[in-house]
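Researcher: Please generate the 3D structure of the following complex. Treat every line as part of one assembly.
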Amino acid sequence: MSGEHKIELTVNGRKIGAAVSPRLLLSDFLRDTLGLTGTHIGCEHGICGACTILFDGQAARSCLLFAVQTDGHEIWTIEGLSETGAIADLQEAFGKHHALQCGYCTPGMLIAAHDFLNTHSSPSSEAIKDGMSAVLCRCTGYWNILAAVSEVASSEHRRMKAAEASSTSRIAPS
Amino acid sequence: MKPAPFEYFSPKTTKAALELLAAHRSDARILAGGQSLVPLLNFRIARFKYLIDINGIPELAYIKLESDILRIGALTRYRAIETSPTVADAAPLLFEATKWVGHLPIRTRGTIGGSLAHADPAAEYAAVMLALDGRVVLQSEKGARTLDAGDFIQGMFSTALAADEMLVEVRIPRARNNQVFGFEEFARRPGDLAVMGIAVRLDFDGDRVETARIVSLGGQDGACRIPEAEAEIQSRPLSAERIENASRAASDIDTHADIHATGALRQHLCGTLVRRVLGRAKEAQPSPRA
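Model: Done. Output below.
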């Protein structure tokens, strides 16, 4: 059926219903239909990674998924992850280390880094390089991107954040 | 850069998918992980009237070990394979090779069945299947057949799949204690398609190599065993001299040239990777039991 298909999905924590043509790419659905233009489109064939989103909690290329395939699934984009604070550490580190130049690849970089750090508890610098090669930066600002991700990956950083969280919870009114 | 229009089906069972495939045959294409197919559709290098999306068929995604055979459902994703203790134990070569496939966000979606059915000559899994004497199960409405990987893979983007058949399962013999495996590839950047890669399996009988599988990927029309290199190390202890001979034989294969590398560079890489992987295999060789 090349006519429109009804889909129901969750985007950034909100339930959404839509009718989509099968050939509509998820990247176009997010940007054009939902107005979530934080998901950037670079190559449209899965190489550059600018359009990386979370599909059921795992990083995936939104240009290689059709919107119709997201029926019943959960999508997070850079907008939602920024709102919830899920990637706040990475965003802070990217700022501190000047890990963005033109910014075009940044949403993909952040989401790829987020997924990588979720699945790698104490990655070596080689592993971080390998993991972050999932997204291309045409400004070639890789050095600072690696510095930012390495900082968030470091055990020291994680200990500090954990300590902050527990001290906050101790003083928070119950 | 947008796909041409197509009709979309999302069957919930293998049976329903096979019925659709029988009805539409070569007008239809199975959509699995989509990491190779969707780029081809986006660029309109390929177009199909019908796409049969099998992502909604959970019965096609599984990893199980039964009677010393590792069975992996066609829809099993790279990411499930690279994090599976069962695969790590029963098929260490498949486990190792998976880390060389694309990048994590690609491995989130890409599937073992999709990789084998697409038959990209630079794909890792076809080489792994040849090295491990793996088999594939092809199913149609009429029934199922099981083929050796060597009979299934027929060249560049070409397999033994008939128009009404779908690859449903991959079978790999469980690794044994007398086996050593190795995998390495060369690409311009991590995650790129391999310019050249090598998968190796050696079965030892004491200190002798009883069976050798040396398989190349990326250099020819498809993953391909290198019998000349295998013969150099077969039935003998693995020595530095033998490894050198195998490396030389491997650098004699016919390779193709393209924008990424000349044929001569691929030959050089083939010999070098064989030397490197066999050298590591020699170190990892199981000590002969008294």
